[in-house]
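Re: EPZ structure - here you go.
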Amino acid sequence: MDSIRIQGGIALQGKVRIQGSKNASLPVLAATLLVGEGSFIRNCPRIADVHSMTSLLKSLGCSVHWQEAGIFVDSSKVRRGEMPREAVTGMRSSLCLLGALIGRCGEVTMEYPGGCVIGERPIDLHLAALRQMGVVFSEQKGQLRAMAKRLHGAHIILPFPSVGATENIILAGVAAEGETILEGAAREPEILALCRYLSCCGACIEGAGSSKIVIWGGRRLCGTEFRVPADRIVAGTYLLGCIGVGGNIFLEQAPAEEMDAVLLAAQEMGGHVCITREGLYVQAPVRPLAVKLITSPYPGFPTDLQSVALAVASKGSGRTDIEETIFENRFRIVEELKKMGACIEQTDSHRVAIRGVDSLQGAQVEARELRGGAALVAAALMAEGESFVRGCSYIYRGYENICRDFRELGARVTSV
Ligand code: EPZ
């Protein structure tokens, strides 16, 4: 069943619990390799990218067991730093295993993690930083080989706050001898979650969540129990979905404290939000207002919600301008939205202008990557009549069950 059928035009009503964060759970799972004992990771989302990550961990010798409330990972028997070819290509999030495996085994051989639809996804910042820490890279039969005879701390300045590079530097820094000072670090909540997990295991890290992080490496780590925070991008997807089609919903456990830029945009689009200890109430009129949006590193508006905002703006009252500053090819859904009657002009590779139309029509559309797929579901909810979103395996990489979640919010959505 790789399609979703949606009967659009129905305002959302109801409540849904927000799943654990994909982008927090992946680096935490990688970090279990540094611990060499068992850790229990609560609220880990049951999504395709996590299953791919756990398969990689098993292939390296970890024991992995799902339980009701989370996943138990024991890396005490990790044998080597070689990742199976078929597991690594095409899954970007395996890149954070690079720092963890160099820290644990002192070496790793892996496929170059490929680019994807949204961009070329280079890894130059990762490699440059790890070289400063004593890692030597070479290429063997088209694979990337990393070796560190003596992994040591360094003073690293990132020219761009790359999330993945920040994660790899932290993972290697925890195992390295001495002090690592990282300036220009990413400030995403996922970095904070990773550092909280490592600190619970006994690591000594200061400045997580700021642009300057200091790691004192070489400390013995022990297993722990850790709860993955709720997924701010999934919460933002459902929040903006409600802004698009209208309604009154409650997003249980939504991490509102990590969503300032998204909440501001939602209010500018005409939505009303109310934050409580238990989650986020959202009330939205039938038609969103036009806005200007620019994506930027946290705490700016997240690139991962740009596609959903673009879909919502397709029915906005007026002209919406969106600038994508993080990835070079994140407007692939424009052609799909036009099949629904959207009026969108791509002025260059980083900018689109959307003239909101009074209504969108249901259509057959194709998802080509994770967040674009979720955006097409949001668009189909807004459209009149029936839509089919094909290519849903992309969506299941990051959303546990987007059909069930939107059904709980009153939408007519089924997997077919
Ligand atoms: C993480 O990707 C997320 N993925 C992405 O979410 C998210 O969009 C991105 O951060 C930005 O917030 C995970 O956490 C698994 P980056 P990452 O390194 O680490 C350039 C989703 O939908 N760059 O911050 O790969 C890069 O090309 C995914 O959940 C270099 O030039 O992002 C991009 O333009 C999509 N050289 C920009 O930096 C490098 O060495 C941001 O990349 C590394 C990155």
